[in-house]
Amino acid sequence: MTNEDYFLYSAERRHRESIATDAKLGTEIPISDRYVITKDEMGIITERRNQFNNIIRELANSDSRVHLIDFEMLIERVNESSESFNGVSFTLNFDYRGIISADGYNLNSKGQALLANLFIEYLNENFSSNLPRIDVNSQRGNAYGNGF
After folding, report:
1. What is the three-class DSSP state of 55?
2. Which residue, 44, 120, 125, 148, has most beta carbons within 10 Å?
């Protein structure tokens, strides 16, 4: 494993088992490839995700019955520190303002609320509805324990 590789979240449990059994996973015994996404593999994943997203965008643009909520745009706005709710800006970090869960991939409850608000805004603008937005700040973000 290198600094450019990704250690999968599911490997944390295996690592804890290793500590409990003194198996020395990742120290004396190399981490199995099934627990790591290499830089090259991440490139393939990114390329395929972009290809699928382009297909979805083309479909939405070609048929007025298909509506697209641009989730990727929401993530870009959060990354640029330009997404906020009631004065609180959100981040992609693992802090109290973060919207990504501890697995580094899925949205936590704050992120899910932001996504729901994006959907609600779209419905209100395009279908003459008047749905209230969710208070994102009332949602729990990431919580961490110190283990002792």
Report:
1. helix
2. 120
Give me 145's structure tokens: 């324990």
pLDDT tens, residue by residue, 41-59: 999 999 999 999 999 999 9
Half-sphere exposure of 62 (CA within 13 A, CB side): 6
**In whole angstroms, what separates CA 95 from the centre of its chain?**
14
The per-residue pLDDT for 115 is: 94
CB-count exposure of residue 61 (10 Å: 0-12, 13-18, 19+): exposed
Residue 145 has pLDDT above 60, yes or no: yes
**How many angstroms separate the CA atoms of 52 and 67, rounded?**
16
Residue partners of 120: CB distance under 8 A and separation at least 6: 131, 132, 133, 134
Q: What's the pTM value of the predicted model, to 2 decimals?
A: 0.70
Q: Are 55 and 42 in contact (CB under 8 A)?
A: no
